[in-house]
Amino acid sequence: MMISERAKMTAGQPYQQFDSELIARRKLVREQLLQINQLTDNEARNGQAKALLAEAGDDFFAEAGITFDYGFNVHIGDHFYANYRLTLLDTCPITIGDHCYIGPDVGFYTPVHPLSAQQRDADVEMGKPITIGNSIWIGGHATLLPGVTLGDRVVVGAGSVVTKSFPSDVVIAGNPARVIRRLDEHGEVITDNKN
Q1: pLDDT of the residue at 123
Q2: Catalytic choice (75, 79, 113, 141)
């Protein structure tokens, strides 16, 4: 049985990015997002953007400028807010929990390009999923790289580059991001590693 390039891509296996099904979906999404992001009516803009995603819960709100490749690999929980210019490169699944708040110009990047120049030249791409828990706050201009998982109640400082996974109840910041504070489940500081 033949496995589609879409199935390979979603599973994180090497796939051909110039597959006709994938090209058609990217084109459709680009055309629709171009129109959606011009809408000034919040309800209309968010309703149409939400319809392109695999799933999005109640109270989905994204300011203008939301961008993604496919949409069918984006799963968002309830009570979601994203500021301007959210980028979701959803080669692999991007899963976002409930009560998540995203600052402006934040990027979730699941594609992985091979280290081998020969594979890159052959247009082989892969990916790793990104999963973030509930009650997350991500500051503006943060970047989450392929394979990252964040636990619940994590705060990501503005401008951070998140290259690895972190557990629940931490504040992370920097490039690469590291733990600068540990919190209890109520958000109270347990330890402060800023220095």
Answers
A1: 80
A2: 113
